Amino acid sequence: MPELTAQNITDVVVETLKDTSDPRLKEIMTSLLRHMHEFAREVKLTPGEWIQGIGFLTAVGQKCSAHRQEFILLSDVLGLSALVNLMYSEKAASGTATSLLGPFFRENAPVLKPGETIAAGDPAPPVLMSGRVTDEEGKPVEGALIDIWQTSSSGLYDIQGPAPDEMSYRGRFQTGKDGRYEVMTVKPLGYSIPIDGPVGMMFDALKRPIMRPAHIHVLISGEGYRELATALYMAGDPNIDSDAVFGVSSSLVVDVEPPERSGAPHRIRYDFTLTRPQPGESSVRVGADPSKVMAAAAE
């Protein structure tokens, strides 16, 4: 048993990973341990400060529920989600830029026909969102599944409303032979990130902006293609340059066009490009439910 010091303890802990059979797991854990220990040394972390940190992470976990994912929110506001997406996008530079999946994604949204609305009952003017899903060569991707979700025109997701178990402002659509899709909706409203939990307390302490610009989430999967998680951001939103979760890129900003004639809907036109997976890429879905991923990993 070596005599532990602040300098040698990292190597001692890393040595305990020597029999890890999964090489990728060993690589990740080794790097995580080294960076984590170096962080503590760099800032001269005290026991009291670390207990505060543990209390914060505990509170983040306790705030998670079937309708809220505080850990995804924490990852988003720290820019980690955006960093992972940016690295993912670098492998598929010719495809549509990715954006954050966010904490409000729900699996098994209603399957709707082309042109059906995801915003039934919303009093705002209708908006027809349409375009094509193609590959990198511009060829249509038939049968791609498009998951779409957004806030209402008042800025709330369904799970934030009075009936969180009921799905609204979300749906799944399938592209036709020409790769086309059509979704009727309403213009979403920008909103504050949830600030009634530990992440909100952190934002208050750091004096950071809490708003997200108006956007529509899109998750597209096609046989033989990389799953694309992205979002379209409404041009002119006052928070487009100060997104609390760093999700905006210029290629994802869209105009909401006025009606072409009386009685016609507003329009959002956008084409998505899917890319092929690279050898050795993880098979875990971008849009997988975190609890299901963890359960599968434990099997």
Radius of gyration: 22 Å
Helix-strand makeup class: alpha/beta
**Proper CATH architecture of one domain:** Sandwich
Name the helix and strand elements from N-terminus to C-terminus, one letter apiece: HHHHHEEEEEHEEEEEEH
CATH class of one domain: Mainly Beta
* Sheet of most strands: 5 strands, mixed
Q: What is the number of helical segments per DSSP (H or I, 4+ residues)?
A: 7
Q: How many β strands by DSSP?
A: 11
Would you identify the CATH H-level superfamily of one domain? Answer: Aromatic compound dioxygenase
Q: Strand-residue fraction?
A: 15-25%
Strand order of the largest sheet: 3-2-7-8-9
Q: Which spans of ≥5 residues are poorly predicted at pLDDT below 50?
A: 293-299
Structural features:
299 residues, 7 helices, single chain, 5-stranded mixed sheet, disordered C terminus, alpha/beta, 4-stranded mixed sheet, Protocatechuate 3,4-Dioxygenase, subunit A
Describe this structure as you would to a colleague:
With 299 residues, this protein is an alpha/beta fold. It has a domain at 90-298: Protocatechuate 3,4-Dioxygenase, subunit A. It has helices at 9-15, 23-43, 47-63, 70-77, 80-90, 198-206, 290-298, and strands at 126-134, 145-150, 170-174, 180-186, 191-192, 211-212, 215-221, 228-234, 253-254, 266-269, 272-273. A 5-stranded mixed sheet has the order 3-2-7-8-9, with no helix packed on it. Helix 1 runs antiparallel to helix 2. The longest helix has 21 residues, at 23-43.
